[in-house]
Amino acid sequence: MSLTSEEQARYSRQIMLGQIGEAGQERLRASSILCIGSGGLGSPALLYLAAAGVGRIGIIDPDVVDLTNLHRQILHDTDWVGRPKLDSARARLQQVNPHVEVVTHEGRFTAANARELLSDYDALLDGSDNFPTRFAANDFAFFLKKPLIHGAIFQFEGQFTTFAPHLGGPCYRCLLPEAPPEGTVPT
Question: How is 17-68 classified by DSSP, letter by letter?
Fold first, then answer.
């Protein structure tokens, strides 16, 4: 389906890039991604995904907006303190881009719900802060043949990578086969 005139205007700066064009923008609109967390890593990623026009964005997060996190969780603001991050995220992303469908999933991403959640999305963005979630994200992205976008931060350092073993690359477990012993790595 062709872009509407409003979408053409909204995305005009992306469409003019030869690497994207109108066909690329239509592919973005037809794509979907599940984001684990809407905190320090998920917040900026979600804002950019919505602004870019990714058609369906899923978010799974069990937490509420906390005043002490607002300096880094830029998706949320003071008016949402004490309320679910999912509600705050949905409202903000719809303000950023009303053309994007935002689907929320309350709770944590675990091995018990990973297959069901991930099966409805093209890719997985892991913004989690713990190894059990990271390994579950890797394992299910690996077996379902979905790209895994992984990010991690600690104080002033960060890393970001995409794992796509179904396209011939390594996976997260290739980098880190087992979680470090509990208490040996700061969160």
Answer: STTTHHHHHHHHHH-EEEEE-SSTTHHHHHHHHHHHT-SEEEEEE--BB-GG
* CATH number, residue 126: 3.40.50.720
Which range of residues forms the domain containing residue 48? 27-175
Asked if residue 43 lies in contact with residue 29, where contact means CB atoms within 8 angstroms, the answer is no
Digit-coded pLDDT (tens) for 12-53: 999 999 999 999 999 999 999 999 999 999 999 999 999 999
Listed in sequence order, the residues at least 6 apart from 131 whose beta carbon sits closer than 8 Å to its beta carbon are 179, 180
Distance CA 126, CA 30 (A): 21
Count of structural domains, the chain:
1
Does pTM top 0.70 for this prediction? Answer: yes
Q: Taking the alpha carbons of 7, 56, 105, 178 in that order, is the dihedral positive or negative?
A: negative
- Render pLDDT for 105-129 as a digit per residue (tens, 0 to 9): 999 999 999 999 999 999 999 999 8
In-domain check, residue 2: no
- Assigned token pair, 177: 């086969």
| Helix, strand, coil in percent for the chain, rounding step 5 | 40, 20, 40
